[in-house]
Design goal:
Elements: H1 3-20, H2 26-54, H3 59-87, H4 91-97, H5 100-110, H6 135-164, H7 169-194, H8 201-217, H9 223-250, H10 255-287, H11 291-311
Helix pairs in contact: 1-2, 1-5, 2-10, 3-4, 3-7, 3-9, 6-7, 6-9, 6-10, 6-11, 7-9, 8-9, 8-11
Length: about 325
């Protein structure tokens, strides 16, 4: 199909899922959510090789804009969905379907791409590489998994942890949203720094140490210290997503290998991430102690460093 047409198809699948999940009961909610997941991951996987193929001279800028845009709208949605549902009286169905407005805009803007020549159909005599047998590919994948586990687990459980320390649900929600807003700084500036370096391991080490410091400070019950720790963690989270996306491009030489690595990294990485919130929830039931969340995050910070530092070395799949 070519990346342009395939991404357009992904947007249509996403639109179908977003509408379907508000039309009925729990069955349609789950089925529609499944379709939204398919649409999202198709677009995520293909945008990276499309950027590398069509805008190689702006790889850092476009990767930064992609990661920053994702983080920005995640933060906006986290902060506005409840006010839309309650304040506007639209309920949860209205709050979910509200975001279709932005999806329709995206489809309209993307429409010209389906008429472009398919760059992936150019003659390519390079051998097809099996990324699943590459040690480097697995390092990038598990690095993506570690940063995704931390992100999804923290945004899922952080508000509840703050409420357990005496904050109101509204305040905890805005603090979580604020952390994601801070992440925009890291997500925007990280790619432009990475592409100027021969190796990215030093940046990954610095971000990993930021994580460890931020999580250790979360043991404090002082509100100002908590704000400072979440600022550090937010910067790290934004940078981490951009680093993962940039590594997919930097660790591959050919377009087809980039597409394959992007598919491997995002499918396997997000599968690993999907278990994070659930595993912590089980741990919380077992230990009944919110400090377990911090230990959980510290463990994956070490995984972040263990797989990220070698993935940041100057090599190609």
């Amino acid at each position: 199909m070519g990346n342009g047409k395939a991404i357009f198809m992904a947007l249509l699948i996403l639109l179908f899922g977003m509408v379907l999940r508000v039309l009925g009961g729990i069955e349609l909610l789950l089925l529609g959510t499944a379709f939204t997941g398919i649409g999202i991951v198709l677009a995520n996987v293909l945008l990276i090789p499309l950027i590398k193929n069509q805008l190689p001279e702006k790889l850092g800028l476009m990767t930064a804009l992609l990661a920053t845009g994702m983080s920005l709208f995640a933060a906006v949605a986290a902060g506005l969905s409840v006010p839309i549902a309650v304040g506007w009286g639209l309920g949860w169905r209205g709050a979910l379907v509200f975001w279709v407005v932005f999806l329709l805009l995206a489809i309209l803007v993307w429409f010209p791409q389906i008429k472009r020549a398919r760059p992936t159909q150019k003659a390519d005599t390079s051998p097809v590489k099996n990324v699943w047998k590459s040690r480097l590919a697995w390092q990038v994948t598990l690095f993506m998994g570690a940063q995704s586990v931390m992100y999804f687990t923290l945004i899922t459980w952080l508000p509840d942890m703050l409420v357990s320390r005496g904050m109101s649900p509204e305040k905890a929600g805005w603090i979580s949203s604020g952390m994601q807003v801070v992440s925009l700084i890291g997500s925007y500036f990280a790619p432009s720094i990475l592409i100027r370096l021969k190796e990215q391991s030093q940046v990954i080490l610095a971000v990993g140490l930021m994580y460890i410091l931020g999580y250790l400070l979360l043991f404090s019950s002082v509100e100002g210290v908590i704000y400072f720790s979440l600022t550090i963690i937010g910067l790290g989270m934004g940078a981490s997503l951009s680093i993962a996306y940039t590594l997919i491009s930097l660790r591959t030489a050919e377009d087809r290998t980039t597409s394959k690595l992007s598919g491997m990294v995002q499918s396997s990485g997000y599968v690993l991430a999907a278990f994070g919130p659930m595993l912590f929830g089980i741990s919380l039931d077992f230990f009944n102690n919110w400090n377990v969340l911090i230990y959980f995050m510290l463990f994956f910070s070490l995984q972040f460093l263990f797989f990220g530092i070698p993935a940041g070395k100057d090599q190609k799949i």
